[in-house]
Amino acid sequence: MKNSDTTAHYKALDDAYYMPAFSRSMAIVRGKGSTVWDGEGKEYLDLVAGIAVCSTGHCNPTVVAAICEQAHELIHCSNLYYVPHQGEMAKKIVEITGMKKAFFANSGAEASDGALKLARVRTGKKKFVAFTHGFHGRTIGSLAVTHKPAAREPFEPLGLPATFVEYGNLDATKKAVDSDTAAVIVEPIQGEAGVIIPPEGFLEGVREICDKAGALMIVDEVQTGMGRTGKWLAIRHTKAEPDIVTLAKGIASGFPMGALVARDGLEFQKGEHGSTFAGGPLACAAGLATIRVLEGILPDVARKGERFKKGLAKYNPRVRGLMIGISVGEKCPAVQAECLKNGVIVNCAADGNLRLVPPLVISDAEIDRAVKVIDGALGKVVL
Predict the structure, then answer these.
(1) Domain range summary for the chain, segments of one domain joined by +
(2) Which of 214, 242, 245, 341 has the smallest CB count inside 10 Å?
(3) 220-234 tens-digit pLDDT
């Protein structure tokens, strides 16, 4: 098939056989580092990275080698047996997060589901408190604590009592948390909402409210974790200590994987939770390789974020490491289109917020190129 036919071919198959769950107009067929190529062979600088997934860059050679090597040995055996690399991966996740025990999943939504189950079974309580504009997944359980009405309301009732309060509002949180609240679930930075950073002291305040009510604090680090903000966990930019943390996205460089990690005294007992595929040999091999790569990248993430911040300063970007949001408004799709035309892929999150979550391996030269294109697009479309 000629390159020029690839996107049309994908589109025809999609239209004929795939449920229309997504809006998309281009095919990405190859990637290397921070660069991807579309079905017609055009090259782009990728500032979306599979939505904060490909932190080690597309097709990182260390990760590719680990997956291939394991694939030659064993692809699957189920959790009826000790799984190659699973124990080592759990040990690394516990070490880098400062938690006590880990449990693996196949996605961020599944990790959220597991965290909600763990909170219920260990506290004996039923209700949850979550926040406006928060996003925790699309499964029945995780959707119950996801605020976005368009995503949640068509599927109600969801069977999981949840109260939503304004993100950043401690008074409202205190009023919502009561003696039957199993947990408060919160993102340390709201990603799908457009990189919304909470007020100083908010997360510490949530911790205090949970302690007083006997509720757990679940911190959703699916998008913010694994070095995205310059620390292994975004919550580590604060003094708040979570009870349960969820991870996914950047955990295995694009291989489907999620995890929940919990403090001492919080764990599933045998038979309370499980998954056929979760924490399989390939996923754990990819995860271990990803962590090895990230260990070398992590010290430079904050500096790279500051480079973006300086280059885009006139637009008042919200920056924490390589998680960047810019309020654009209704013209955000036009800005996205202008950037794409000039070879840079960006993303519009909720409420007209431009979101940049590039590979953590992005170079200074690539950052400068991205800033030039984004500045040009914003100047042309918005100013």
Answers:
(1) 3-59+299-381, 62-296
(2) 341
(3) 999 999 999 999 999
